[in-house]
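new request in #modeling-help
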Amino acid sequence: MAGAGGWGEAVALQATGLTKSYRRRTWALRGVDLSVPAGSVTALVGPNAAGKSTLIKTWIGFERPTAGSVSVFGIDPWRDRAAALAQIGYVPQSPSLYRGLSVTDHLDLASDLRPGFDASTARDRLERLDIPLDSRAGDLSGGQQAQVHLCLALGTRAKVLLLDEPLASLDPLARREFLNVLAEAVRSDGVTALLSSHVITDIQQACDRLVVLGVGQLLFDGRIAEALAQHGVGPGSDIREVRAETEVATFAEADGSLSTLHRVDGAPSEGVRPATLEEVVLGYLVAGRTTRRAAEAA
Amino acid sequence: MRTARLLFQTYRFEAISVLIAAALLAGAGLYVSSRLDAALGDRQDCLIQWQETAGEVSGECGEVARDFYGINEAEAGKVMAAMAILPFVAGLLIGVPLVGREIEHRTTALAWSLKSSRSRWLLKRAVIAAVALGVVLAVPATTAEVLEGSRVPGVDPAGTFEDYGLRGPLTVFRGLAALGIGLLGGALIGRVLPALIVGFVGVLALVWVLTNSQWAFLPEADLVPADEFGGIPRGGLYAGSPEGPLYRDGQGNLLTFDQVTALSPYPPDGSEERFYRWIDEEFDEMVRYIPGERLGIVVVREAVGLSVLSVVLVGLTAVVVTRRRPY
């Protein structure tokens, strides 16, 4: 699924040398350089505490960078929060709805808070999802709450959607419905979306770009199609050893056997099969961990 | 109106609690006022007799006065004590969750991602809350004025320092200051219960400051000879004097006790009796006295002070809200 019209040269989200530390001890992000093209749907993947939420929150102005800068269509959210926010629709990690307010009240609230909020479209989307508009948010399921959040974010008609692990607590059906709504919106409105998630199958279904973040550092940034075409997997022998320049990392498969992720240029060599997206992600996460440990040991 | 409706729905527990407390207190004020009026009837002379004889009044008049003072102390006193607390409790109860609970429940992540200006988000809800709180508090504040009229018959409540700050517009302004304290506490701490505790400490500090800075609000006092004064007339206020007792000599000069002592041919550590007789012969002891008619000046000054404080507190809250994380 690509954004309408494909990617242009415009950069929707940018991070330059982005560093974020908490109380000068815990590093959430270390010198991240990242550009998210306008019109793309980018998956942001990484283990817990990789800094995915922090990265998203710096773009929406919830976290201030310790060093470096971020921008949304060239606007620094800490210098001009109003202009940056006008470009962004946000779905937070945990439901942040008002438990005592109904879904309709939330549409009113959004209309009150955001000039130009498209309440009728948001209402239509919610009705199509069979979400009871008169129900209090506290009475909705996790999936329904996530859908309400998404419809509120889409109702802003923002050019950028920041989705901070909205699928984490949803069952497969709810995840599928959520992604369908997102896909439809991206197709019809051509928005840029950044979706942070752990669920690789969802990413493959919904996204066209992949960003892998490992404990504050950018490990991979590219198109998913290219990631799949340029990587292969062969048998691995030692999880700690990277023997050739083309090897990314060796990791354990679900059955305990070792596999090595290779960068391939053209046709895979003998004994190397095409990698799945999950293997690409796993390989880069292991590579990032190995590099970090080596750096710490040094 | 939409914002007000949504705010009310979000904070209906707090809003209804304050409404009920204010309505109960207003009702209690009117009820006790009617009981006082009924107990006294047109026998104000009985109260005068009671005061002149220090309660040694017998017969029907004694009964009337006893009933009146009994209700005044047991019932009206409790209503006024509640009026001392209501504005602060109501202000905190409304102010703390207005930002504190939003942060605690993480609803700020939704609100602050939708609203381009957090300051305006805060200001809008703070103004709505302040207006609503002001209107609600104005009701018991008014009935407390009525009650005061019954407690001190024959004296205009607008012209007496009795039950100062427990009735009338000051209760509203005190409530608004407590609202500001609650807002700031909630924004700083981001948790309702700890913010309520901190807000309570803040309110205690405010009460202490108000109690100890009354001199700043008092208008100029009259200098009245203590002999002619013969006790503070009802409604007025003995303003005290930072330099101690004051004495006026035959030429009209005003002297302090130390200055008088320095002039005395009888040092006070020698013969105090002769010393004080000499003072009585040579000087008029003076007291500073603020007539009850000047209550309005004090009320306006304190109201302005509390308004400034409230605005400063909301401004500080805006700074916190603008800079802090929404969780």
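bot summary: The two ends of chain A are 43 Å apart (CA to CA).
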